[in-house]
Amino acid sequence: MTTTVAPTSAASAPPGKSAGKSGRPKAAKLFRMLPLSPAIGLMLVFLAGPIIYCLYAAFTNMALTGTGAANVKFVGLDNFRKAFGSGAFTNAIWLTLVFTLISAIIGQNTLGLGLSLLMRRSTKVVRNFVGTAVIGAWVLPEVVAAYLLSAFFNDEGTLNVMLHAVGLPGQDWLYAAPIIAVSLANIWRGTAFSMLVYSAALSEVPKEIEESAEMDGASGYRRLLFVTLPMISRAVMTNLMLITLQTLSVFGLIYAMTRGGPGTKSQTLPLYMYEQAFSFSQIGYGTAIALVMLAIGAVFSLIYLRGLNSEAA
Amino acid sequence: MIARDRISKVVGNLVLLAIGVLFVLPLLWVLFASINRTAGLRVEFPTHPTLGNFKAVLNTDTTYRPVLNGIVLCGGAALLTMICAVLAAYPLSRFKSKFNRPFLLTVLFCTGLPITAVMVPVYGLFVQLNLVDTLGGTIMFMATASLPFAIWLTKTFMDGVPISLEEAAWVDGAGNMQALARIVLPLMWPGIAVVLIFTFIGMWGNFFVPFMLLLSPERLPASVSIFTFFGQYGEPNYGQLAAYSLIYTMPVLLLYLLLSKKLGGAFALGGAIKG
Known about the structure:
The complex is a heterodimer.
Chain A: H1 16-20, H2 26-32, H3 37-57, H4 67-70, H5 78-85, H6 87-120, H7 124-139, H8 142-153, H9 158-165, H10 173-176, H11 178-202, H12 207-215, H13 220-231, H14 233-248, H15 252-258, H16 269-279, H17 283-312
Chain B: H1 2-34, H2 52-57, H3 60-94, H4 100-112, H5 115-128, H6 135-159, H7 164-171, H8 176-187, H9 189-205, H10 208-213, H11 222-225, H12 238-263, H13 266-273
Main location (chain A): membrane
Pfam family, one (chain A): BPD_transp_1
Keywords (chain A): Cell membrane, Membrane, Transmembrane, Transmembrane helix, Transport
């Protein structure tokens, strides 16, 4: 299996046919782009469509029941005023930040990098065992992972059994520290992705460079910081962005573990949006929250694109 | 120096092993509970191991139909994704056009959008188009949601196939689609398989999309119907839940094993993603 990565920028498409026949009529050029149309069609209807719909509905009082159901009215920025004035919304924003910071940026990213660094110098048996365990957690369906970890963090669960064994007090983690529990669950489930990205990046760092740094007397820590990490900075950037974006939209894992509770102690933005739009039938308000999430995602996505572009230039 | 190297290697292996054990621990509960008739949330090896839980859930309503629905839904959506992605990747990878760069940037941008956030408007759209609770509509949406990433990965794999062979075919008068089907696809099938399998695995585990777009119990895939174990009547039957979880997980585990035996497993994916 080849993992060679060809140049990513479109500008580097092979010259071949196109260069030789640059004088072709416009129609023929359009014709050879035709295979793109199924993909473009689907994305226009099912991705661009909803986003445009979102831009409209977020400024209305649309609802499934009550006045907003009978006649949909334009309400300007009311939904956003309501959101930013509401304690539940700021709570959700805050929890989403904590969840993303702990589980993605600190947890998955650092653990994934650590694992891939350690795996380079480890024995084959150990490497295979750890790789299988970590990837296994990733391949498991979201809801199954959620049940496993609910049981793990439960009052009588494995974690408490282990804590009691070493004489530490246990507690029902899903009640005592729900956001920490779901963050750890997300680390368990998502670390494989970072590990794979970093393993691929590290496999392309020439051994000679690190060896020569070692000859020059650089310690392991300094070698990592000044030699290895700068060489995989592009992968770090890609990975951080992708896992941040994935983590922002985690729904099933938290929903199946805590339903956002107890109370609203683990109600991140996607769960808050779901509750408002469907449990309380406030579609207009729900789409306004969706728009806020889309905006956050768009900003991260643009930063990521800029990063890729400047690296490629 | 050599001794220090050896020590650091041993320590590294031990740390790795410890992390691996931590990743395996949560799995113990599901394994033990599935063969325990009176399982709770406590981790304990059953005194009388039994296959009763598996027997109890292996019936049409609980297991066969949801799993079949899942195969139709995720299989259909993954195939649709792959066909569209291969078709789209070909001109992007092979021809120079002013259109390529903006299109690829848009695709990359879309991979970043939180699909969860789109679900409320998608539900609205489905109501307008009368697509709520239809397998066809859900398949099309699931395919669209994974399309940006699939196009990106497929193009990366396709860029790795040298263009010289196609040039020979073009000279011999083959059309683009013929060249794609006869030359490019056979050369890049491992990449295609990697993208296809990971698309399927992602969809198989996806809970939110079918949860929102499908309503009738007889259309729900396994990822959603698992919630029926938590009925209105208090404590679920944990033993059966565990057995069902294992059965539901089996297809993706088998697919993943196939992938690792033949194609270098998930590490092939890492190579394509890292950019």
